[in-house]
Structure formats: structure tokens, C-alpha cells
Amino acid sequence: MRNWMLTIGVVFLALNTMQSQSVIGKWKTIDDETGEVKSVVEIYEKSGKVYGKVVEILRASHKKDLCTKCDGAEKNKPILGMIIINGLKKDDDEYNGGTILDPTNGKKYKCYITLESADKLKLRGYVGVALMGRTQYWTRVKN
């Protein structure tokens, strides 16, 4: 019986550790210029690619904002519920090959994301080459 309980404990710990070492989950977005926490983005996997959806807007005055500067299907759509990270693929410790939408200016950028630690995500958006861009660090939302 004691061995059984130990086995269950080890399995639970392993599953919990694996989840915390993944980009999948909810992340607080932090503005790289102001340091302000702006929203919560849920990063998820679908058909082998990674996406990010705005699931909460933390600034009360922006909860009902629309993406007025966006083009195409996103034009004038609510930012809450919008998919802003599209089509990233895992490449070793990095996810890349997709785009990120900045709802404040309506522009799409190439991007990559990596885990800095279990609870810190590095996100780099850029035009052309990765040297020409901005980096943000997001923090994992604790359950």
C-alpha cells in the first residue's frame, strides 16, 4: 500500500512538473515599455501548432476595446477573445514560424516564444530578422 501511494505521488509530481515546463497555459502580458500588466493570454496547441487567445483584459477602461487599427477579419472585432498568436511550431526549446498581432496598433509581426523559466515566457515580435523587434516577458497565471 505504501509503495502504491509513493507511485501515485511520483506520477502526480512528474505530470505537474511537465505542465509547468510548457508554454501551454495562461500568461499575464506585461507591456515592455510601461511594465503594466495588461491582459491574460491563453496559449494552447491545436493540430501541432501553438496559438494564443486573449481571455481576460485586466485594465478596466479597456475591457470592451475593439481592434480598430486591425485589417481583415480582425477589423473592429473585440480584443477580448481575439487570437493574437498564430501558428507557432516547436523547434527545440523555441516556438517559431508564426505571427503575433499587436491589437494596439493593428500590426502583425513574426514572432518566437521560449520559456525563460517555468513561470516566465520570453516573447519576441519582429519584422524581417529577429534583431529588429521588441521583447516582452510574460508571467504564468497561477491556478
From TrEMBL:
Domain of life: Bacteria
One Pfam entry name: DUF2147
InterPro entries: DUF2147
Domain DUF2147: 25-140
Protein name: DUF2147 domain-containing protein
Protein source organism: Flavobacterium geliluteum
